[in-house]
Hints:
This protein is mainly alpha-helical.
Amino acid sequence: MTGVEAAIGFSDLxxxxxxxxxVVVIGVVLVVVLAVLSVGVGSTWIAPAQxxxxxxxxxxxxxxxxxxxxxxxxxxxIAIVAGGMLALxxxxxxxxxxxxxxxxxxxxxxxxxxxxxxxxxxxxxWDAVPAPWSTLLAFAGGIGASAxxxxxxxxxxxxRSARLVLDGVLISAVLSALVSxxxxxxGALFGTVLRWVVGSLNGRVWQDWxxxxxxxVVAVPLGLLIARLLDALWLGDEVAAATGVRPVTARGAxxxxxxxxxxxxxxxxxAIGFIGLVAPHIARLLVGERPARVLLPAVLVGGALxxxxxxxxxxxxxxxxxxxxxxxxxxxxxxxxAIVGGPVLFTLLARRTR
Length: 354
């Protein structure tokens, strides 16, 4: 038993927390099942056997092969990885700030990313920003907004947790207001930037995956490797200092990693909310409070949540009547997470405060 486990009481952990490998295995299985369903569901249903044939290259190339490999597989992979990145960012933020309501959007990345894309379209008059540039613009805007919040919250050599959350809420609100002003001044932009404002996986292809995975390969391992620092910060700055961890340095590293994770995800899927807020809570119900135990399960929960939200969005879109002009409306996954996330979060918080 480690010192941290002794501090929180190992006997108080949920039953599954004493079998962390089982939790991870269950999470992986759930993600795989949802991924198969996500690839199969659409205007054309594709059975698991046909999906396997398309992925393994058995038999000649068909229309189903193109649908699976060219269209649905990148969308599903992006959902899994982006959801995991947002969940990991939320876990890192909540642990570093010791605030269960901390969310990736609080570091300004989502608002900054959306504003960068909308402002570019507004001032250039372009109909759309090319995919590589839109991703780079969103990433740069998110990092810039996050840096501003860090500077505002800096006090006595470190970003203060309470001030960070407050400044994050205020700056995010200002960024959202600026986006609204630009959309009011040029209403034609709304349809173009909808996926950035709400968050969506519609139309995500291999080019978007190519923009996401390099950030994920760097940021996700970093988020997992700072587990010891997060454990120390979670116990308080005085305890962290007593164990040889510098709270200022550790919190700065945690915020940097959370920003990188959020910026990478938002730059591809837009401002999808609630994943980074809810996923850590679900993971804690399974494995307990200790951040080091929560990180990997939270990644799996986040991936499952976003794949599930996109799957529900696709299913609801298929049930909607098709218009004679525009066809069937494609519901964005961000709308589903916003509608479902609120009640789920309320239930989780109510259960945790009993």
